[in-house]
Design brief:
The protein is mainly α and 17 residues long. Helices cover 88% and strands 0% of the residues. It has one helix and no strands. The chain is rod-shaped, with a radius of gyration of 8 Å.
Length: 17
């Protein structure tokens, strides 16, 4: 749900950095 989406976005952001 929302929490999962947030975690996914955070992981993607960390990968982007």
């Amino acid at each position: 749900v929302a929490e999962q989406k947030l975690k996914e976005e955070l992981e993607r952001n960390a990968s982007n950095q």
